[in-house]
Amino acid sequence: MKLGSxxxxxxxxxxxxxxxVDYRVGDIVSVMxxxxxxxxxxxxxxxxxxxxxxxxxxxxxxxxCDHDESENFRPxxxxxxxxxxxxxxxxxxxxxxxxxxxxxxxxASPYFIRPCN
Length: 117
Hints:
CATH architecture: Roll
Structural class: mainly beta
Helix content: under 10%
CATH class: Mainly Beta
Distance between the termini: 70 Å
Mean pLDDT: 80
Largest sheet: 7 strands, antiparallel
Number of strands: 9
Number of helices: 0
CATH superfamily: Bromo adjacent homology (BAH) domain
Low-confidence stretches: none
Shape: elongated
Strand content: 35-45%
Order of helices and strands: EEEEEEEEE
């Protein structure tokens, strides 16, 4: 008897629906830490495991000098930060806004980023 190949443990997908919210690669999400601080990230990848649980891979966004904490999220006030390689449960994320996957420029971009004083 010949066995077929085993199904993959996870599969990467371009979008998922979780708790009546559609998430897509490129979307901006917020993540709260244990002390109530809010951090923003861009979804770099979405995956579904063999049980149907959804997870994501994030690229953290770093606020620039123009960022005002009292205002809502504005994409132009952030630059790309650290890229994670860890799958996070999508439950820890809250959708903030839609954004194309290439909206944020890489840190090695030819565009000038002025230093904070």
